[in-house]
Amino acid sequence: MGERCISQECLETTGFSYTLSLINGKYKMTILYTLMEFGIVRFNEMKKYIGEISFKTLSSTLKELEADQLVNRKEYPQIPPKVEYSLTERGKSLIPILDGMCEWGDKNRLA
Hints:
Blueprint: H1 15-23, H2 28-38, E1 41-42, H3 43-50, H4 55-67, E2 71-76, E3 82-87, H5 89-92, H6 95-108
Antiparallel strand pairs: 1-3, 2-3
């Protein structure tokens, strides 16, 4: 097997690029981490936990993650409305990546 030549390759066709297309965004990884840590989370709880995210951004980012089948949205027919979010099985398959990022941060954080 010969050496790979960058002039004959394309980043867009890699698994890395596909994964990045799903998790790239200012808050996507934060939302995925939140759901990994706490399991089932309501919208307002997540907003309060994350802090600086706007309601609109949180809502649109959750919709994107749901469309990519990483997050499950469960709505309860009651008043006031109750909506819970959790990771799908596909979303849970990202946990080793999130854990690795947590471990790296713990080991390399400046004191």
